[in-house]
Each structure stands twice: as C-alpha cells, then as structure tokens.
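Our collaborator T.R. sent over the components below with a one-line note: 'Predict the complex.' Nothing else. No constraints on interfaces, no templates requested, no preferences about which chain binds where. So this is a plain run: every listed entity goes in together, and whatever single assembly comes back becomes the starting point for the next discussion.
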Amino acid sequence: MSEILVVGSLAYDSISTPAGKSDRTLGGSANYFSLAASLFAPVRVVGVVGEDYAETDMKLLTDRKVDVTGLQKKAGKTFHWAGAYDGNMNEAKTLQTDLNVFGDFNPELPASYRDSKYVFLANIDPTLQLRVLEQVSKPKLVGADTMNFWISSKRDELMKVLAKIDALLINEGEAEMLTGKTNAIAASDELIKMGPKAVVVKRGEYGFVLRTAEGFFILPAFPIANVVDPTGAGDTFAGAFFGTLAKSDRGLDLASLKEACVNGCLMASFTVENFGVASLRELSLAKLQSRGEAFNTITRL
Amino acid sequence: MSEILVVGSLAYDSISTPAGKSDRTLGGSANYFSLAASLFAPVRVVGVVGEDYAETDMKLLTDRKVDVTGLQKKAGKTFHWAGAYDGNMNEAKTLQTDLNVFGDFNPELPASYRDSKYVFLANIDPTLQLRVLEQVSKPKLVGADTMNFWISSKRDELMKVLAKIDALLINEGEAEMLTGKTNAIAASDELIKMGPKAVVVKRGEYGFVLRTAEGFFILPAFPIANVVDPTGAGDTFAGAFFGTLAKSDRGLDLASLKEACVNGCLMASFTVENFGVASLRELSLAKLQSRGEAFNTITRL
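Returned assembly:
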C-alpha cells in the first residue's frame, strides 16, 4: 500500500437539482477524491481554504486519517460554486463561481509529501498541475483530470501535462472536445496517443470506457433510478480508482485498472444518491462490496 | 425453432451523416429486422411497397428465405424518409417524410401467417399494431417498438398495446417521454408496470438496459470508433433479439433474454458501420460470434 497525493479544490457548493436544493454544502474535487480514496489507502491533500472553512469539515478528512499538512488556510473566503441541473442531470449549469482564496492558489508541497508514489492532479489550471508534479521526487503513477475551460484556454500547458501522466480521467464531453472526435471510443483512441498509458472516459449515467494499449474495458454505471445530485461523481470515481491502485500497488497492470474502474463506478453511484459528500460520509467498503456483487449479476450473462 | 412474424415499414431512405450521404438507400424497420432475424430463424414479413420497389431489394429478403407472402405491392411509390445526423449522431433530424403507399397501409395477414409464434410489431401506428395482433391465433411471445409521434398522438391505443405484449423494445428518449422519467433506469421501472414482462431500453452508443421482474441486465454497446450511419440500429437490435429468442424457443427465461440482448447489441454494431442495410447484407453468424468473443473480453473483469 502506498500514499496518494491529491491536489484539487475544497469548496462550498450551492446546488439545485430536480430533487431539491442544497445551500453551501461541502464540495470540491479534493474532498470527494479524499473521502473516496481514503477508504483504500492513506491520502495527502494539497489545497487552500478560507477562514470560513468549518472545523467539522476539516475533521471529516482527519477522521479518515487524511494528511492535511498541505492544506493552506488563507485570509478570505473558501471557493464557492453555485450550479443547477435540470432534466436528465447530464450537465450542470454554472450559476456563480466565487474563486475567493482559490483565485491565487499556488500549491506548495510540504517536505513530507514529496515522496508520494501515487499522485492525482484533479481539475485545476494545468500550470499548477505541472508545478505540483515538479515537487514530487519519484512518483510511481500520476493521474489527472481536466475541464473544458483549460482545454480552450490552456491547451499547450495541458498537452504538457498529458505527456507526463500515466492515467487521464476525463468526462466524455471534454474527451470529445479535446480530440475533436464525436464519440468516446474515437476520442480515447486519440487520447492514448497523447501520452497517458491509461485513459478513462467517464460517461456519467452510462458508465465508463477504459482504453489502454491492450484495448478497451467498458461497463455501464450501476443503475440508480433516483439520482439526487451528480456533483462530484467524477472526482469520487477518481478517488476510488486511485485508492484501489494504491492499495494493490501493482502499477498499471490491466487487472488492477479494471478493478479500479469498477470501484470508481460503484462509489460514484453512491455519491449521486445524495447531495454533496453526504453519501461518502457514511460509506463503508462492505457496502461498496455488496453493491459490487449486485453489479456483477447485472452485467454478466 | 419457431417462425417470427414482423410488421413494419419498407422504405427508401436518403441519409446524410458526417461520414457522407446515401440517396434512396434501402431501409425501413421491417427490412432491418428481417435481415437481422433471418440469420437465426424463419421470418414472415407484413408490409407495403410501391411500384418503384426494386426486384433486387425483394430478392434480398427471399434469398434469406424470408416469407414475403404478406408484402402488399400497391400503386404509387414506396415510403421515403430523408434525415440528417450531425455531431454525435444520437438523434436524426427528419428532413422529409413521404408516406406514399404507407399512408393508408392496412396490414392483412395471409392465412399462412396466423399461426406465428413470435410476433414483432415494429414502430407503426398502435391501432395497426393491435389489428395485426388480432389476426394472430396464439402467439407465444409478442414484442413491440414505438416512437415519440405515437406517444403524443395515440397514447391510449399505445397503452392497449403495452397491456398485450410480452416485450417492449424502445429508445431511451422515448422511454423517458412515455413515463415522464429522466433516466432509463427509472423509466424501465415504470414501463415494466404497464404490461410487458421484459423491457429493453435501447441507448444507442451506450448499449441497453433490460428490465424484468427479476431485475436488470445492462451492458454498453460494442465500441465502434467510426460510426457511419446509425439508422436502423434499433430495428437491427430487435431483429437479432427476436431471432435469438425464436431460435432457442424457450420463451422469456432470463438466460435467453440476456443472450438475445447481447446479440441485438452486437448486430446493431455492424449496422452502424455502414449506410442502410449494407452491413447486414454481408453479415454472417460467424462474424457475429467473433465480435461476441471480443465483447466478452471488453466487458469482463
């Protein structure tokens, strides 16, 4: 088992979906990721919060033994995002973004983090992703996510990130945008040429596509009739994915990647059942395993 | 092995996709269905064509031993549909519909068809679907498809159809429209209460959801990077689905349904690789089986 370093956002989100509303609920990629990954392996988090960040929210991480030495507390307010989903919940409409202390975030790794073997660069400015990577001495497996904003505004920097990472985890729409292709299969065929040895295209309610040099591994999402809030599903997937890989610590062999994808998919199915990180607070590996057995029945002849 | 009766359209389609154009190519639900199903079991077709219907197109069916006794040839032109797909090809934009002889189609079953055990009512007016059903003496398994037009204009008749059939095969968007639900899982939970013992929600590039009283069977589509023309994929799925069930002739047991869905999914993946019925002309069960083995690798841990 190895430690996982994650850099990403810690936020308060105001979310509206057909199932209801949740005001200033705990969110941010680093929170979803850490809560998911810490069920499998030790996590070290790098990020920034404001003075309004609640002690209880910090405790949520430390109770899971997440190392928060790399969490900066700055004068000002925590990053706040407001978004709304309608209909099929496949896409959020951003209503408001208050970067606050996240606006001039400059990730600095504590000395104790520099030997991290597993590194996940959640969706932040690719320049910062590269800066984090420079501070890690000898990572064994580096993964990253990104989004439409960086694809259009920082494409060159993003391509440098892709050349340096082992695994890319990316939404279907963004995979298509980055490659100019119109489906996840063609897009992953292109992405695998850009550097990563493994590409995971996250398809929301439709599951995922894993693409490696050996070929594809594709499964649907676990069936959830009542999706309450899809926010954080992708970061949850990444957390369980990295947690699984760090726990087995066998690198990028295909069997580990497949198991990592299935755990990512399953854990994301819990996240969407409630607002924010509510489901992840309660989740145990036993519950995940039980859903995994149901998933086998659902997807096997 | 039992005979399959199908009622549906025979058409000439003018299709435009990002991959190219195909003018007045052979199409229609009954053609896609018959070419797919006839690889597994004998097919009897009910439909109407115009005077312009080519002998070679008729021969395509008879070469496959499809019984065309129930095919009416009427004065006038064959049904013509013109449509265009863009981007991700998930939805066709209808440019023109010339019903022609299909406009006053009144399906009449030859006496030799009335003992058909497997019956598929492709997407036509639910009033006509019911009329066909009345003419079959003792079917063992009845399936149907439908579309947005009938859902909004003939809902009552459609509900009568649903009460009488064993299996509903329906597109995701139409499943959601019919139930007022916003995802395929919730929609299939509702549809199963409306009569059918098996509901198959067809998700295009994302595969399918099979819902029975016993639960779900869900798989992605076979990965196709270069989708040329998605027209007829759903009817191809239905053809291979019914063909598989009629060949094994074990009714609606879960193992048969699962195999039927996988064959439907695989055969549809061939259809989308070329315009119209071009792929189905060449397809053999050996090719299907070979793709099935690849599909197993792609979807298994």
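Summary for T.R.: The domain at 4-299 of chain B is CATH 3.40.1190.20 (UDP-N-acetylmuramoyl-L-alanine:D-glutamate ligase).
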